[in-house]
Amino acid sequence: MQTLPKSRLLRFVEQAFHLARRTVARYSSKFSKRRYTLHQHIVLLCLKVQKNTTYRELLDELIEMPRIRNAIDLEELPSPSTLCKAFNQLDMAVWRVLLHLSVTLLPTNGVVGIDASGFDRSHASKHYTKRTRLTIQQLKVTLLVDMRANAILDLHVTTTRKHDLKIAPSLIKRNSRNVAILLGDKGYDDQKVRALACDAGVRPLIKHREFRRSVRRGTFGWTPTSTGNVAKTRQ
Questions:
Q1: Is the Cα torsion angle 28, 124, 145, 52 positive or negative in sign?
Q2: Are residues 37 and 113 located together in one domain of the fold?
Q3: 3-class secondary structure, 148
Q4: Angle subtended by helix axes 38-51 and 80-89, to nearest 10
Q5: Does residue 230 form part of some domain?
Q6: Which residues is 192 bridged to in the sheet?
Q7: Which of 18, 63, 90, 158 has a 20 to 30 A CA-CA distance from 207?
């Protein structure tokens, strides 16, 4: 019987499993029940995001995916609540290391762009938030993206209105080895950001902000023109 080739999904799972084994220990602590490994949890969570599905739907599909289960040595499927709990317990640093390791597999060129965007927490129950009087804030996500591979090198997530100039320095410091040229819009136009980038060996190509002077018309109607000359206007 001819052996079936590996699907893209299977290759994705194998690569994620390999990176997970390089990132974290097999179990969270010596007191772990050792029913599932952290590597298995990480792969299943990555698979959920890759397939854009729910915990319950993912586990239902895995029943019919023996090759996927074998690739991560998964003999018994966890419950949806187990995966959800695993996601909440994994530290952000783990995902950042996984992200950095995955970038090494891509053909990046060091030309990197930085930008931010807002995301709504669409899955929050309006009934629940109203009943508990909770305010679900919008997420502000700042991404550092390689322009050749379109790969996310790093990210910063906040629920506050933190200015771009306060976020950029930490991203530059963490990724200076992978960035040769930094592209940014005028929201990142600041001398401190430029100096920090240069000190880290990064060339900043950031759009300069344009400042327009707003001069109130005087008693006699004197106003500056765009050329800097003074022209008298008749009332």
A1: positive
A2: no
A3: coil
A4: 100
A5: no
A6: none
A7: 158
Please check whether residues 14 and 89 belong to one and the same domain. Answer: yes
**Residue 185: both structure tokens together:** 């819009």
Q: What is the pLDDT of residues 111-162, one digit of tens each?
A: 999 999 988 766 666 676 777 776 767 889 999 999 999 999 999 998 888 8
Cβ-contact 34, 27 below 8 angstroms: yes
Give per-residue burial for 210-233: e unless 16+ CB within 10 Å, then b.
Answer: eeeeeeeeeeeeeeeeeeeeeeee
Asked if 121 contacts 92 with a C-beta cutoff of 8 angstroms, the reply is no
How many helices (H) does the chain have, and how many strands (E)?
9, 7
Classify 183 as helix, strand or coil. strand
Task: With H, G, I as helix, E, B as strand and everything else as coil, classify residue 126.
Answer: helix
Q: pTM of the predicted model, to two decimals?
A: 0.70
| Amino acid residing at 113 | G
Determine if residue 142 is left, alpha or beta; phi over 0 gives left, psi from -120 to 50 gives alpha, anything else beta. beta
Domain count, the chain: 2
Q: What are the angstrom distances between the C-alpha of 31 and each of 28, 84, 195?
A: 8, 20, 48
